[in-house]
Amino acid sequence: MKLDELLNRIPVSEIIGDKNQEISEMTFDSRQAVEQGLYVAIKGTVSDGHDFINSAIEKGAKVIVCENIPTDIKDEITYIKVKDAAKTLGHVASNFYGNPSSKLHLIGITGTNGKTSTTTLLFDIFKMLGFKCALISTVEYRIDEEVIPSTHTTPDVIRLNQILAKAVSKGCEYAFMEVSSHGIHQQRTEGLQFKIAGFTNITHDHLDYHKTFEEYLKTKKRFFDDLSSDAVAITNVDDKNGNIMLQNTKASKKTYALKTMSDFHGKITEVDFNGMLLNFNGKEFWTTLTGKFNAYNLLLAYAVAIECGFHEDDILPTISKLKRVKGRFETLKSDGGIFFVVDYAHTPDALENVLDSINEIRTKNERLITVFGCGGDRDKTKRPEMGKIATKKSTLAIITSDNPRSEDPAQIIKDIEAGVEPQFYSKYTSIPDRREAIKMAIKFAEPKDIIVVAGKGHETYQEINGVKHHFDDQETIIELARLMSK
Ligand SMILES: CC(=O)N[C@H]1[C@@H](OP(=O)(O)OP(=O)(O)OC[C@H]2O[C@@H](n3ccc(=O)[nH]c3=O)[C@H](O)[C@@H]2O)O[C@H](CO)[C@@H](O)[C@@H]1O[C@H](C)C(=O)N[C@@H](C)C(=O)N[C@H](CCC(=O)O)C(=O)O
Ligand SMILES: Nc1ncnc2c1ncn2[C@@H]1O[C@H](COP(=O)(O)OP(=O)(O)OP(=O)(O)O)[C@@H](O)[C@H]1O
Ligand SMILES: N[C@H](CCC[C@H](N)C(=O)O)C(=O)O
Ligand SMILES: [Mg+2]
After folding, report:
1. CA distance 445 to 424
2. pTM of the complete model
3. What is the pLDDT of residues 442-464, one digit of tens each?
4. In this structure, what CATH number is given to the domain that contains residue 343?
5. Which of 292, 320, 348 is where one domain is finished?
6. Residue 371 belongs to what H/E stretch?
7. Which residues line ligand 1 (CB under 6 A)?
8. Angle between helices 115-128 and 312-320 (to 10 degrees)
9. Neighbours of ion ligand 4 (CB under 5 A)
């Protein structure tokens, strides 16, 4: 593609060199630069891409997009000065891949919890309705039947455009993607044309990155601020910050809620471990998904489908057929009659929701045992909060490891323990080895007791010191429950 075509409608401050270069590929990583390529220099959290301009040139890059033109300008290289290189990258990537987001219906879901669940439910609904779709999520990326391993919840904007372009070429009409706060902050969605944006909720997470809750909130809001006037913004008004998302958006505004007056209103009529009887805008239906948070996720998915132009008579029977999402409130029962819930709750709010959902369903004759930990090299402030919630809401909490990464597992556990209130000191024990912790829970449990194993959900590894060891909560439960019932 010709450079001037690539720069179509992109504001630039200065160009030095040939504007007619032919571009073979584009990248923001000098290590990936190729002959006749374009390199965008971005300031990151660790290093500054401007320091790697010459290494990109050594690897063959002929066009450099940067915020500061280097002093040692090289012949045959075109330098393009822009105000914001990360922002420019998004628009260049869209142009390079033929603006795929404008050729399908792109739906983005943001919020602290519920993004994977809601996007996956939407993918499944639209697939059942007969459409080819794409999914970009924490668990996996999908282009119709093709599954691509996921590296980020929201990948970088080049990858995003590559996936969307492939989806378009394969005939996908819808793409559902998670929009993480890191993704918004690092402008990974810049230049994408969203048809619908959905907000789930906002609670405590990622403060290691965003520093304050206000900054975190502002970042989420930016996603809605950047929508165009032909987009639709759908927010959860039961969340106290739900309306903030709509404050400055040009998109048409829609609301959903279980408790507050809203355009899409839901009610849980009945709930147990097998599912829920729900009522959406006056129409009742059964779902095998369970727990209040799943009612929210289904309601948002329903709202998106209606805003896409479908009729409730087509959507509700489809929702009724949905299966649970991998690692999200997945239930198992051992031969010995112990009940297990595997859930990806890794934030205080998610853990509280899962335990509340179970407490709402259980008769209180059974005991509730919670096995959980907190990730290393991640927001430390959530640790004591999760310790407090787990001990308060369970009969017994077993604190263990969940991807300690470069941190000392014993220290992470101490940080969690620090949040336990004195009256609950007798309600927990700590076992750093996750397998041993699950084993202890099974030993302690009697028939009908409920064991929640939280934090890892679909993950199949335990990351210790940069090494990912195979570990799967569900697999471990099945293996131990069988061994121990012998
Ligand atoms: C903290 C963070 O988000 N970092 C992301 C960021 O990297 P960075 O800012 O640290 O990059 P850097 O190392 O400072 O480099 C700056 C620039 O110089 C370039 N460079 C660097 C070295 C070199 O030799 N040559 C070169 O050109 C880099 O390519 C980059 O463009 O930009 C990279 C490219 O897009 C991301 O891969 C990387 O994600 C890291 C791996 C990561 O772990 N991110 C997690 C925290 C994340 O993004 N999570 C969210 C949310 C999770 C959720 O809640 O579900 C997600 O969306 O996945
Ligand atoms: N709507 C919701 N409200 C509150 N909690 C939820 C909601 N949906 C799911 N959860 C809880 O949060 C956990 C994570 O859900 P999910 O993976 O869908 O969220 P996510 O936003 O994709 O998270 P991540 O930021 O890690 O990608 C679930 O396992 C469940 O415990
Ligand atoms: N997207 C989240 C997932 C956390 C999952 C939990 N198992 C952990 O490793 O902390 C993060 O990377 O912070
Ligand atoms: Mg996710």
Report:
1. 19
2. 0.92
3. 999 999 999 999 999 999 999 99
4. 3.90.190.20
5. 320
6. strand 368-372
7. 28-31, 42, 44-47, 49, 52, 138, 152-154, 156, 180, 182-183, 186
8. 110
9. 115-116, 138, 153
